[in-house]
Structures are given as C-alpha cells and as structure tokens.
Amino acid sequence: MTDLERFIDQGTGREPADIVLKGGQFLDLVTGELVASDIAISGDRIVGTCGEYKGRTEIDISGRIVVPGFIDTHLHIESSLVTPHEFDRCVLPYGVTTVICDPHEIANVLGTEGIQFFLDSALETIMDIRVQLSSCVPATHLETSGADLPIERLLPFRDHPKVIGLAEFMNFPGVIHKDPVCLAKLEAFQGGHIDGHAPLLRGNDLNGYLSAGIRTEHECTTAEEALEKIRKGMHILIREGSVSKDLHALMPILTERLSPFLALCTDDRNPLDIAEQGHLDYMIRTAIAHGRAPLAVYRAASISAAKAFGLRDRGLVAPGWRADLVVVDTLENCKAEMVFSAGRKVDDALFANRRPVAPVGLDSVKARPVSAAHFAVPVTEGETPVIGVLPGKIITEHRRYRLPAKGNQTTVDLVQDIVKVAVIERHGKNGNHANGFVQGFGLKKGAIASTVGHDSHNICVVGVDEDDMALAANRLGAIKGGFVVVEDGRVTGEIALPVAGLMSLEPYESVRDTLHHLRQAAFALGATLEEPFLQLAFLPLPVIPHLKISDKGMVDVDRFALIG
Fold first, then answer.
1. Spatial CB neighbours of 71, under 8 Å, sequence gap ≥ 6
2. Nearest of 107, 108, 170 to residue 145 by alpha carbon
3. Cα–Cα distance, 128 to 340 (Å, whole number)
4. Cα–Cα distance for residue pair 327/343, rounded to 1 Å
5. pLDDT tens string 347-394
C-alpha cells in the first residue's frame, strides 16, 4: 500500500490512524472557533478532524487545545550561539516546528562552506529548517569580511530542497540605484521568494525597492511604517528578539483584518532569553495579554507565515496538511505541553536519532595580537564622533561630544557614559583596526569583547581601560572566538564559540548557563543594557540617521562613528 492510499484509508476511518489525539479541541484559524474533535495523524500529515477516530496510538489531551506549529519567518540561527542541531533541540519543544533562516552570519565568515553546513544540518534536524541564500556577503565595502558571494556562488544552491529563496536584501540603496551586483542577484531570483530588509524606507524609494520583486520585511519599527508597506504589498514580519524588540510598537496592526499579511519572527534570540521567556510562544502570549485577538495572533504565527513563504502544506489543523501541531494549555498562556513535527511526537529519543554534522570554521579567528597602544585615539579639534546606543534596537545614532584629553590622547568620559569601542579585523586578511567611542553601555571599568560583530564578524571590543581591552581581544583568539569579560587585568567571564567564531560546540543548556554568568560579569562592570553582548555585536553596523542615499547608492562614510 502506498503512503497516499494509507492516508485515504485512515482519513476515511477504514483503518485506524497511526496516532489520534482525543478529548481536546483545536483552533480553527478560518473562523476563530474552538472545535471539539479528535485529530487523526497518518505518517507526516493530518488525515482527520471534526469527528471521532480510532488509532493505533491514542493520546488523551482532554482540556487542551491544538494549534498549528509555529513558524519563525526570519532568524539567524547563529545568534542563538549554538549549532542548528542544538537550536533544534532548544526551540522545537516551544512549538516552533518551522524556521526560515538566513545563514548570513556564517556566510560572511566562511562563504559557501557556511551555507553548506546549514543545508547539511537542515537535512538532519527534526524541525523543518528552511534556508534563504544570503544576499549580502560582504555586507558592506567599509569593513573586511571573511568571504565574498557573488551570484555565481549562490546559484549552485538555488535548487536545494531546503532552499526557499534569496535572503534579506539589506543593500536597499544598491537596489534603488541599480547596482549591477545587486541586480544580478535579484534577476536570478525573479519569480521566487526574495526577502526584504529596508528599515525606515518610505515613499517612492520604497516603491522602487518593491518593484524588484521583494515581498517580505522584518525591519519595521513603527505601525505607520508597517502599514505603508502592507498597503504596498509587503508581508510584515513582526520581530521580537533579544535586542530588536518591535512587538509592542507594532501591536496596532496585529488585527484580524491585517493578520493575513503578518507573521512573527525573532531574528536574533539567545538561549538565555529562550529559557527565561520562551520563543514565538512568548510573542503569542504577550500579544494576547495586550488585547490582541487570539485568531489574529495564531494566524500570524502559522498559516499567514506559511503562505508568505509559499509553504502550502502547513499552518492549519485540517486533513491533508502537515502534522506540525502544538498542544497548549490555553490560547492565552500558550504553554506547549506536547509538540508534533511532521507527525512525530517530540521527545529526547527523537533528537538522539539524528545524524551529526561535522562543525566548520574551527580556526576562523586569525586576528593579530594587540596591545593597549592599539586603542589610542589622538586628540582632534572640536567634537568627537560617538556611536549612540538605543536600547532595544539595532540601529544607533551618530552623536558628537567634546571629550576629555590626557596628554595627546582623547579619553573616555564616564560622566557622559562614553567609553572606547574598537573593531579589529579577524579574518587574517589585512589586520585593520578602527577605534572610536560609544555612549550607552554604562561601563565604569574593564572591557567586554566579541567575535560576533554584525555583519562582517570581526572582533568588537568596548571598554574603559586599554589594557583590559587588549586582554579581552587577545583572549578571543585563544578560545577561537566567543565573548570575553575582563576586569582589572583578569578574565572574569567567557564563552568559547569556535564554530566560525559564532557558535558553541556545547549543549544549549551549557551555553544558557554560561550566558547567565557572562551577563552578571558584564553587570559587575556597570553595564546597564539588558543584552550587552548582543548590543555589542551590532555596534559595527553603519549609522543611518536620515537615510540620505548618495547617487552611488552608498551611505556617506562621514556618518560612521568609528575612526580609522
């Protein structure tokens, strides 16, 4: 008997289903009703609802509600600081059965080797990991990246079964001004899915960007911006990560009327936040607690997300649909008590049977040793550029201050919460080093450093004391990448991330516990940011306060706050 014949026989009730969930209700995402019904599963799909079924395995879920598996529509698994296999084990129990990832971070370090690692991993994980091909490698000509991925290097991956399209197209100035490299990538994916990334882009420039066939966007930070983009045909991905937190700002658009054009995503979320708050389940219960209709929220978490990315087999509790199911206690609390991925009940044995994938990029940190002298900033006349951190956002401000001097060197100003920041090239290409100042970390002493530095992932270090900054940066080379905290000449906290300098080889539980210690070590330096390490990781991004685009499609270099 073929699978198809078995589906039909079990759906009609001629044969017992493989699994039947009995005694509960399911959320009908068409009408919003809770429907009392058995749910019959055959293989990887649902074959029966709205009736009674017999099963070879019957599971009593009395008093519980079944909803479709959650879909994270945009994330970088690397930001979880664990490998795809550990991410699978960490997040799937929260009900996230599909993720659409952009391996942008590892691709900027390792190029095609990093993308292949993710594709190989996606073939082994229990959750369905779909990959979008990284469109911006390198992300900018203003920083040294570890790789270069022109369209010729992406095309061999286009037909891979796990590839869903072209990942977030961050170079929106390049699109608007018809940069040939951008156009070549966009041409190759016309008719397929192209993901967007255009913070604050509005008006006719937005129209030009969308005319390139770009359909989704996760960078909206206001309801007004999101509504304009929805009106112009975009599917808005509401983001709530460890640093970028836009859920509250976008609550006004999370309605039943607009929910077919909305989805949820985390972008960047670490295991400590997942352990303390949850994943997409956290977004769901937060939105409902703030008055959003459960129908709108659960639609955005599943069926609307699936439709936005052309995943036509999932997102409803209905016959013929993929059996990605979450059994929750209540719609409001959204606590996943049981999860099914393609008809398989998620448990430890399921994870144990996955085939491992060999890690890559274990020697990717090739930075030259530095000393305190490398962090000296000569005195200049007038005001000094300063990066202004905005808590809860990855965008920063370009500020200017008169800073104190010591001899012929500009120094930190703790009264104004201004300390030093440096980016050190770590791919072994040129040894470049840039120094500057940053406001908003709250540091009173010591230094923190990271090899997670979006988007080129060089070493980024923030500190009050130059000797501590040098120790922190050099320690990253010794542990092959990660995060380091230094206080008064000694390392007080660290985590090794040897997989491309981005991900740990340890179980996610170990990473979670170590992150807790790291956060405390950073707070001991005076750090006031909720997520000092992930905020540090985004400091190398360009400052774009008014979105003025030159006729060459590039942001003016003068608006970067790093010096050198």
1. 96, 97, 98, 99, 100, 263, 264, 280, 301, 302, 305, 306, 309, 311, 314, 315
2. 108
3. 12
4. 13
5. 999 999 999 999 999 999 999 999 999 999 999 888 999 999 988 777
